[in-house]
Amino acid sequence: MSPFFSKRRVSFLSGALLSAGLVAACSTSSPQEQQAKQEVSTARYLSAPRNEVRDTPAPEPTALAADAVPEEREAAGSGNAESLMAPPPPSPSVAPAPMALMRPSTEAAKRAMPSKTMPLAQGVSGGLMGKVAGGAPGDGSPIEVKEKAKADLDDKSLNEGGNTFETYKPNAFTETTKDALSTFAADVDTASYSLSRRYLQQGQLPPTQAVRVEEFVNAFKYRYTPPEEGAFTVHLEGAPSPFNARRHFVRVGVQGKVVSRSQRKPAHLVFLVDTSGSMASSDKLPMALESIKIAVRNLNENDTVALVTYAGATRDVLAPTPATDVKKIHAALDTLAAGGGTAMGSGMETAYKHAVKKASGSVVSRVVVLSDGDANIGPNLSAKEMLASVQKYVSEGVTLTTVGFGMGNYHDSLMEQMADKGNGNSFYVDSIKEARKVFETQLTGTLEVIAKDVKFQVEFNPKAVSRYRLMGYENRDIADKDFRDDKVDAGEIGAGHTVTALYEVELTGETQELATVRIRAKAPNGTEAKEQAFPLTRSQLKPSLEAASPDFRFAVAVGATADILRAAPAAEGWSLSTTQKLAESAAGSDSDRHEFVKLITQARALSSASARGR
Question: What are the start and end residues of every segment in region (Disordered) (predicted)?
Fold first, then answer.
């Protein structure tokens, strides 16, 4: 079975569902009421753990879902770009179905957690997903339902219906005497945070598999001092945990050097736009096209833009064009419409062939994929084939950014791993506000890579630290022995970017030297890496959490919230109330941080609703 997409089995009572359908058909209720009742009933069963029938009543809907939508919703329906800021309400055809708000106990979560990719059904399109196989209706026995999608990599298709996420087991505590080294690659992706934000704003807890701690933490700006020379600076800080008196949090923060817009290299961007039928909703293709227009406004006179689309076939829409020719670029974008199949593999090949023609040491050449991650026809169809296709172009100097849109059939796992293999970044756009953040700030920063194959290795002192665990970065894990192997791929840091990692540690003794943080990285066009070492001592630990910097407190609040949302075993017993207070104390005047505080409020309300429905 592939580690990329595994087949899903969901248990439910067929008799209950069939009865619900008959009752709905005979009911005098309005069609809207009937649909709502059926969705709640179906979601309740679809969200049950594998091989287990959930017979507890669905939680009562919470009125806070509507209140959680940001102020931008006022602009919805105005007919301009601002109207795209708020996600549209779920529709029967492309709908994120209500997720069960119940968070199982840690042990139950472990039993229900699959070891490979779990496609999560977020909507019910045209009836039940899959065919009933065996079981007696109404007898209470589990009935297996297999999705229509072929999830194995050897099959020539991706999952159909339902969002898909890669499942990563949270890092456990490691005894320092047994293994003192923690090694991982840099990561500045943010897709997980903005996708989870959308779930919460729509009144649903995000699936645990959708939450990646490092992408939550790195979605925010931190005030690290930039380097006076070299590619980056390192900032270390620690303080007592607000959850456990025997533990401390330690932060490793990296600040990349800032390169002004006028100083960076010329860029050649090939926008690869998914125009298949699955992109028809207003939060997909229209949002993607507006995002490209935002990007073009932020390019330089020496930059060029090309446009390739894929649906049932691949099409060259715009040859390399100066970014200053805005009228021509906009005219090409305005001709695009959604329809047809999804030949993503063919589109990737075409886009890369365009990009590689411009790739050189003096030009940044990047493919930017804008899609919901679906693929169902054409060559290079499987995830394995597409990833291999992406990776072969990295050595030729072409990098990749993936930008996700929409819900209902979003393939987060493919988009994230393509960006990883393509030496790039993965983002998710849920509003015009996020589009501006990604295409005005984050994308233009990644255009100028200041360090590539960036690896971190923290060596803890067994005389000072008894146990430790890295929060997140499970999909960026690197074998300790590969830290100094420069052939092993790692992450990239763009101009002005920050990378933050959090550890939870248990201290022992009075030894001053706690750990040594080593960072190994190559120059943008280099083949040999250089290594730097930074000591972490007790003097860098604050006596209390209140004495720590606002950036430290906020990073801990974000990381801990993510651990709670993904039901990490090490976070059992942690409170969202505590993370909210911590975030509020460090929010300052930053609007993004205040938005996060509101999201915790929504998560707390949804968690309370699940407890009432238990």
Answer: 28-97
